[in-house]
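Suppose you are handed only two things: the residues of a chain and a line of SMILES describing S-adenosylmethionine. What would the bound structure be? This form records exactly that question and the answer produced for it, so the two can be stored side by side and reused later without any lookup.

QUESTION INPUTS
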Amino acid sequence: MDTKTATTDKQAGPTNAWDQPVVKCSIPHKFTNKIVKGNCVEIMKELPDGCVDLVVTSPPYDGIRVYNGCSYDLHATGEQVYRVLKDGGIAAMVIQDQTKNFAKSLTSFRTILDWCDNFGFRLFECVIYRKHGTEGAWWKTRFRVDHEYMPIFLKGNRPAYFDKAPLKVPSKHGGKIMSGSGNRRTDGTTTDTVRREINAKKCRGTIWNYLMAGDKNKLKQQHPAVFPDAIPFDFIQCFCPPNGCVLDPFVGSGSTAVAAKRLKRNYIGIDISGEYVEIARKRLRAIPEVLI
Ligand SMILES: C[S@@+](CC[C@H](N)C(=O)[O-])C[C@H]1O[C@@H](n2cnc3c(N)ncnc32)[C@H](O)[C@@H]1O
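ANSWER OUTPUT
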């Protein structure tokens, strides 16, 4: 048995390791739970400093898709995202690189360095979004790309809110009995052999699996480059306190706002395209009002 996959509650440890904050929604009323049309940099300038708990977004990059002729500036976006986040706030991004003439553009890595070096973000983690369901056709001259990067930027010393319990994944050997030698002490001796039942679920690692065709929503399918709703759903549960506010400056079909509404968080979504703004608003209207 692969004991590396074994976890117990004790090993997983407390997920809420410090007092979780009680937050009040501090974004201006005119932006609260709204999808706003415009250039995200300009719209974010209208938001006060430190009013957002979490940003989840997937920016356009390398001109891979044509979104109704948009223009964007990832450097200026990072500056505003940093400013509007609260201390301890998180910005999670989904990004990849274009491949041209057998080489990657490196936009993802450049953006990570830019946001960390120039605005003060710290890289909490960079998890891999493993895409299940990528076209299986034979890619003649290179590997089939079945992942994207999800850098998780942190403003401040530590996340203000962190609850990874809802993100647990099934253990391969859940329910079986694990026995093995204990841990190695610094003097080289080992602790006593242990026998214990492996938990059904374990702490999530740094490769996150999502089904690309998981959201069979006709409205969402009208947008050319969406991410699964499950991505913002996971980030929001983990990093946004109840009643907190989630921002997506490139909201597209509204996936982040939809997840926020379902999880009873406040949201602001921005998109430069009137067509996508309408799709996002329609998707949100289809969800019963749950926020008071
Ligand atoms: C990758 S898509 C986001 C898709 C979204 N995650 C979803 O699941 O529907 C990027 C979006 O950014 C929008 N966009 C591009 N430039 C923008 C800008 N300067 N300000 C706001 N939105 C912009 C595009 O219209 C497009 O909808």
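WHAT STANDS OUT: The chain has two domains: 34-166+204-291, 169-202. The helical segments are 9-12, 40-44, 74-84, 107-119, 230-239, 255-262, 274-285.
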